[in-house]
Design a protein that fits this description.
33% of the residues lie in helices and 28% in strands. It is built from 8 helices and 10 strands. It binds 1-O-phosphono-alpha-D-ribofuranose and uracil. This is Uridine phosphorylase.
């Protein structure tokens, strides 16, 4: 079957999907790393591809920005396409000087003010967790292939631009122990949990709220090769 947002037919999407926010990052991964990639979706330019990596069938698809968007795409992948694992491969903003541009963070929990889980399934609580097995697999793979990662809690936010009248990154770091921020993992982890599936999240630091350094849009699209390699190797 197809959905209003995805034209793939059942069976055209692999059991494991790598999911960047940026659909052009998905295109880059498919064209750079997958053998024989076949595009299964272009509705709303939310590109999705299936190919093989070292003989293993893998899909990669953009999620768009924010929980509403990844909420739709990840739900459909799990529920209607029988996807088992989604690994988000995102960009994030650092909340601490200890994180530098291009550092890779493996998310061990996502804190959020979002009402996504409560609205979607009546689930209370401001922290969602990734699947432990999948996260351990990524951590073990990182050790094996010698890619440094930092494990930590992420702030999964509904907001990118804040006014100065509300709490800022210093509060999120001090009060909630979040080391960086992005906008999707809380909803992804929730969807995986309610549907009995697995999700994990890797992010690469693309900017710093502390130092105000930032990578260009193009770099966020095409320079996260270490994280892409790690995610692909963890799928094997
Ligand atoms: O680079 P992606 O994966 O989109 O992730 C981050 O970048 C976007 C904001 O610029 C948000 O989607 C945020 O989560
Ligand atoms: O969601 C995001 C991603 C990168 N940087 C931010 O400040 N927020």
């Amino acid at each position: 079957m197809t959905t209003p947002h995805n034209t793939a037919k059942f069976g055209e999407i692999a059991k494991t999907v790598l999911m960047p926010g940026d659909p052009l990052r998905a295109k880059y991964i498919a064209e750079t790393y997958l053998e024989n990639p076949v595009q299964f979706n272009n509705i709303r330019n939310m590109f999705g591809y299936t190919g093989t990596y070292k003989g293993k069938q893998i899909s990669v698809m953009g999620s768009g920005m924010g929980m509403a968007s990844i909420g739709i795409y990840s739900y459909e992948l799990y529920k209607f396409y029988d996807v088992e694992n989604i690994i988000r491969i995102g960009s994030a903003g650092a909340y601490t000087e200890e994180l530098n541009l291009h550092d890779i963070v493996l998310v061990d929990s996502a804190w959020s003010q979002s009402t996504f889980a409560k609205t979607q399934a009546g689930v209370e609580g401001d922290i969602q967790y990734p699947n432990e097995l999948l996260t351990n697999k990524i951590e073990d793979t990182a050790k094996q292939i010698n890619i440094p990662i930092i494990k930590g809690r992420i702030h999964s936010s509904d907001v990118f631009y804040y006014e100065s009248s509300v709490p800022n990154y210093v509060d999120f770091y001090n009060d909630h122990k979040c080391i960086c921020t992005e906008m999707e993992s809380y909803a992804l982890f929730h969807n995986a949990k309610v549907l009995g599936k697995k999700a994990a999240c890797l992010v690469t630091i693309g900017d710093s709220l502390v130092t105000h350094e930032e990578l260009s849009a193009e770099a966020r699209e095409t320079s996260f090769d270490k994280m892409m390699n790690l995610a692909l190797e963890a799928c094997l």
